[in-house]
């Protein structure tokens, strides 16, 4: 059995796991990231968590085939350098070489969303598929493209930004500067905005009982209201799914992946989201008689996708070298 | 020197060429397609054109490493079958096996737009690039994706339909049934519509001198008017480029290809189109400091892209087998 280390470096926690070649997590540990602090200190804690795991497993670095780490921001995977991370307030940090040296095994770096997409595609909801697009509906809309088992990161290394695909030309201003991006409508942030706007226009909606103030409105509020039969909530959910379907149909027309999986907070609504979404998407996508259609699924690995995906990075690189 | 046959089967003409392993066309011939007529008759004429080329070259089928053919419509490349072609009025025609049998060398099939994209990416404007997206601005908006030298055709075999990506939710109805597709705005058809609409609103525009009736408006009209300094024409061109930039930025954010090349009639405007397009796209795309950006270029092979791309299909399949 070959074993790998997978690390998911987030703004809140450093998570790490020992992962086997069947993509199962054997041991998992974490430490708070404690930002803001210097990159060197964060690296030292990553090393400490990894050593802790190895020690518990009764292993040394020599028993490990390699490690991978997912990190928020723009990364240069070839050099193992974090080019820029707004989240960590890092610029040009040679993260992978530092970890490789300190831990004593090869280390590989990828953007955290891409690492999670790789995990979900290879070991989760799209396991065995020839191609998959993983769409995470959180604060933003993160997308990872996996074709033939490999991440498509493009010429710049930062591809798959379908969240910043304009679907409403001249629409809501997005954080990226464009107007009408999918992210402005299909993120949890977009859903919260739409929910609050609808509440403003409908003072008798039961949504007010679920979330009496702006700060209490979240990505679940409208779905909860819809389950209670509230008409305003139902309209918000239908509108949200409409925007998401528009983006999903665009992605499918462009790439025709075997599987499109939805993750993130809003995807936890499960079939309440997926069933109407599929109806809308299949009515819109390009194609014809006898054509094989993209399956639309829910992600299954949750936060573990990032750990397993980081380990898969190490596995693929070890196989290639 | 290895030699291949490339065929581009269109609604108007059957074109075929003898192509060498440096992707140069050695001999080229054509015959009218003469639709509507049975698939068998069209196949017989394809075989006749190919034999004519071989005879002129003093070669036999045994001297050829293989042939490729691009055909409009939905194709099943693996089986070599044209699943459905509206253009040819064909359904389930086993085109590649028929040609292979009649000509006496292996034959491979791809959608015509994809074959042309493969040619342009490998032997034209994107030669040597790690990845390219070829966008053809004609009656519709055709797109081909080439990653690592190979077409990305997706799970269904019909991917890369970025022309049917909604950029104006609730906008103009597209032939595909969706509303607000890129194709409705960035095709020659879309530009002609916008030109005619602007003429209706501006009876004093010089566009009326260029095209006195609806039937005389074409994809060049607005660009011609803009060159003459007509304000209405300038606004039409700016609006057209705005829509195209929106779509191009969406494609670049999604795939970050090394090169995005524009072909088709409207791309013949050259820098009058490309220079303002680049300005708008680079202002919109996601990315940051030091990032490598997608180059936006004009296609260079014209109709020959389809012939050379079809030959490359044969070359790649011969190499693989």
Secondary structure layout:
The structure is a homodimer of 321-residue chains.
Chain A: E1 3-9, E2 13-20, E3 25-32, H1 39-57, E4 66-71, E5 74-76, E6 81-85, E7 90-93, H2 95-103, E8 107-111, H3 112-123, E9 131-137, E10 141-147, E11 150-151, H4 182-186, H5 188-201, H6 207-210, H7 221-227, H8 231-255, E12 259-263, H9 271-284, E13 295-298, H10 304-320
Parallel strand pairs in A: 1-4, 4-8, 9-12, 12-13
Antiparallel strand pairs in A: 1-2, 2-3, 5-6, 6-7, 9-10, 10-11
Q: What would a concise description of this structure say?
A:
Two copies of one chain form a homodimer. Chain A is α/β, with parallel strands linked by helices and 321 residues long. Helices cover 39% and strands 22% of the residues of chain A.
Structural write-up:
The structure is a homodimer. The first copy, chain A, is an alpha/beta fold and about 325 residues long. In chain A, about 40% of the residues lie in helices and about 20% in strands. Chain A contains 10 helices and 13 strands. Chain A has helices at about 40-55, 95-105, 110-125, 180-185, 190-200, 205-210, 220-225, 230-255, 270-285, 305-320; strands at about 5-10, 15-20, 25-30, 65-70, 75, 80-85, 90-95, 105-110, 130-135, 140-145, 150, 260-265, 295-300. In chain A, the strands form 3 sheets. A 5-stranded mixed sheet of chain A has the order 3-2-1-4-8, with helices on both faces. In chain A, strands 11-10-9-12-13 form a 5-stranded mixed sheet, sandwiched between helices. The radius of gyration of chain A is 21 Å and the shape is globular. The relative contact order of chain A is 0.16. The mean pLDDT of chain A is about 95. Chains A and B meet through helix 8 of A and helix 8 of B.
